[in-house]
Each structure stands twice: as structure tokens, then as C-alpha cells.
């Protein structure tokens, strides 16, 4: 319980109390997320029984995100191309334009931006759906029917997100590079062959694999964040809204932080060795 | 092994709020037990404690000779397969049709074919007077129909115990009466043990043969329907009369 602002407490104490509360909240959320992750792993032997649910969630997550991914990716590729051309000026040969666009898209922009937009859409949707089920006692009803909510609700969403994020990332990479190609050839007077030669130059399949590993982890983070916030929603509509908001914020922060850590591990330690 | 439910010394608090403070109660097999009490007295909490949806702080719950507190997840699920619960708001899964709601338990726990499950679900819906809603979504049903569909879901697995959480709350008197008659009919036809949580006395006298009154975390009356009806003083009489003055606190 935070002290009231109106009380005789010093402002500094109030700030400390707020910080303490935030730290406790973060530790609690991390613990809940970790426990849910372990519980999801416990239910993995039930995959055959949940196949229909997993396929349904793959459709919901994948198919529903395609328009959003197309729009994000086209403009990401376009901006990357314009910015690269501008940064090159007369110092870097234009034949490297395709190389820079492809590398930045495949390693960073594709996986991260896809995860952020899909995370906002899917994370909030999962948290709102499960949160509504929680506050209307539908999750208790599942428990009463001896159906494990982690197996029935969380595991299919988790696996679907882990599988669909890499697929959406491949799709996003392709669209972004096409967008960059279109802008370069139609708007920046870069010859088509120059751009495509640049794409092939220094191409390393490890870049793609690294991006896809990141996307897989981002999918897991989005699903766990959505599920954990949904399962712990309290109150009515306001509680569900709060759960959806927290799911998106948590997933976005986790994506950005883990992107740095994963990048360091994958490209410096594993592929860099 | 004594069949039925034995609750002793049951205590539960949420933060600083003491909800149950040493509840002792016995429910025998085949009995229709009504648990009465004002709003916020922990009636629904008690139902959830019995089936392990909540964990008590103290006390024991024994169902047909087996202690509920401390059961593993698997044991709890085995126990719950012998129970059904009708939730206050119905708690129908709003992402699936009414028919799928009713048949979900069978689809998950039995080897029956989809056709057999469909037939049994349809039969349950007919028993509660809803023969034409199999393909409808819960959002298309009225409040009373949702409660009936929830009842159909409760009986389809032929449980030993059915827990009703405020089965008539929020319904008009005619619909409430039809729900009460349905509960009576199901009790007679299926021979289940029923626990009905309510503060609706009309409903209580229609469906219950033994009453328990919960106040301030403890049972303050435990007796038969006739004893409850005959009470002229004390908490039960005050509750039946709906008098704000008496041993039961008002606001």
C-alpha cells in the first residue's frame, strides 16, 4: 500500500515507496511469468491432444497479423533504403545499398518491428481474452471441468506464437526488402542490378537464422506476457483493460531488452566464434 | 469412509479481510443443502474451497473420505470430475457454441465419438428446456437461458455433486421459479447431492432440505428446512423475515 500524497510523509519517502512498489511489481510479474513458462513446459506432452487448438491459434495469430506486417514492413524497408542512401552520401559506394538494407532488415528491423507490432496486437488480444475469461469465472469453470487452463489456453497460444513469429518475420523480411528495392529503383534512381547485386554481396545465412531465433524468443515472450497478465486480471472491464495494457508494455520492453542480449549471444558468441 | 462432505475449522482470509473463521459443516450424500447468508459472507468462497479452486488458511475438507487440502493437481482433477458447478453468471465459454460448451467435458475426458457427445449434449439441453440453442453462441442467450445452459453443462457428465452459486440471482421471479423447479427436478431425477448458495429464501425453501446460515465467517444455524421455517427468533428467523434489526449485523 502506497502512502497517501496528502499525508505528512516526505516527498522523498513517497518516491522511494513508489520505486519500491515498482520493483516489487516487477519481481512479482517476473516470478509469475517464469512459473507460467515452466507450467507450459509441463503441458507439452499434451500437444497431440491440443493440436486443433494450436492450429486455431496459429491461424488467429498469423493470418490476422499479415495486413499489419505488410504495412509495417513496406515502410520499414523504404525508410531503411532512403536513410542508407542519405548516410552513404559520396563516401560509400551505392552498390552497398542493397547489402546494408538486407542486413539491417534481416538481423534487426524485421524481427524486432514484426515482434513489436504483432506483440501489441496479439499480446493485448490474449490478455483481454483470458482476462475476460478470468473475471467472468470461465477459467474457474474450466478448472471445475478438470481441464487445465494452462494446457487448454496458454500452451496453444505459446506454441502458436513461437511458430508464427519466425514465419511472419520471414514474410516481413521479404516485404521490407521488396519495399526497399521499389524505393531504390523507382525513387532514388538506383539501377535494379546494383541493388540486387548488393543484396547478394556479403549475404550470410547466419544472419537469417539469427533473426529467426530472435523471432522465436520474441513469440514466447509475447505469449507468456499476454497469458500471465490475462490469468491474473482482477475486477471487471477496468481490470481487463489494465491487463491488456500491461501485456503490451511488458512484451515491448522484454522484446527490446532481449533483442540486445540475444544479439550479443547469437552474433558475438555463437556465430561470431 | 463416511460419504458426503465434512468441513471442520475452515478459515480463509483475503489480506486483512477474514471471510471464513472456523466453519464446521456436514453434508450427507443425497442431501440438498442450502447455504444462506448475506452478500459478502463467504458463501461462494466456501464452494470454491470445497473443490480446491481456493486453498484454505486453516481447517479440513473431506469429500467421501478424501482430504481435499493437500491434494495433487491430478487428485484434484479426479475429484472435480465427480462435481459440477453452476456459476452465478453462467460462466459459459463465449468463444464456443452452447452445444460445444455443454459437450466440452465429454470431449476432453471420454472416448465418445463427436456424434455421441452431440446427442448427450442435446439431451441435456432438452432436459433444461433448451432444445433449440445447440448452435447458438452464449451472447445470443438471455440471462435465464444462460443459467439453464450452464445447468445443462453441469448435468451432462452425470456428477455426484452439483454446486449452485446464486442460481436465481438477477432473474425475474418467473424465470427464477423455473430454475428452482429445474433444480428440484434434476435432484429427484439424477439423485445428486446439491449445495445451493443463495440469499433468495423462495429459492431456498423450494430446493433445500437442510439449511446452513453463514454469518461473520461461522455457521450460526444448521438445521432442516422445517426447523428453519419454524424459527421464530435468532439469526435464521431474522434472515427469513429480512429484518435489518437483530443478531445479524446490518450495514
Characteristics:
heterodimer, A: 273 residues, mainly alpha, globular, B: 251 residues, alpha/beta, 6-stranded mixed β-sheet
Q: Percentage of helical residues of chain A?
A: over 70%
Biggest interface between chains: A-B, 15 and 24 residues
* Annotation field: number of helices of chain A: 8
Q: Write down the Rg of chain A.
A: 22 Å
Structural class of chain B: alpha/beta
Quaternary state reads heterodimer
Beta-strand share of residues of chain B = 25-35%
Question: Main β-sheet of chain A, in a few words?
Answer: none
Report the end-to-end length of chain A measured between terminal Cα atoms.
50 Å
In total, the number of domains of chain A comes to: 1
> How many helices of chain B does DSSP assign?
9
What average pLDDT do the residues of chain B reach? 90
Q: Tell me, what's the shape of chain A?
A: globular
Number of strands of chain B: 10
Uncertain parts of chain A = none
Low-confidence stretches of chain B: none
Overall geometry of chain B? globular
N-to-C SSE string of chain B, H for helix and E for strand: EEEHEEHEHHHEHEHEEHH
How many β-strands of chain A, per DSSP?
A: 0
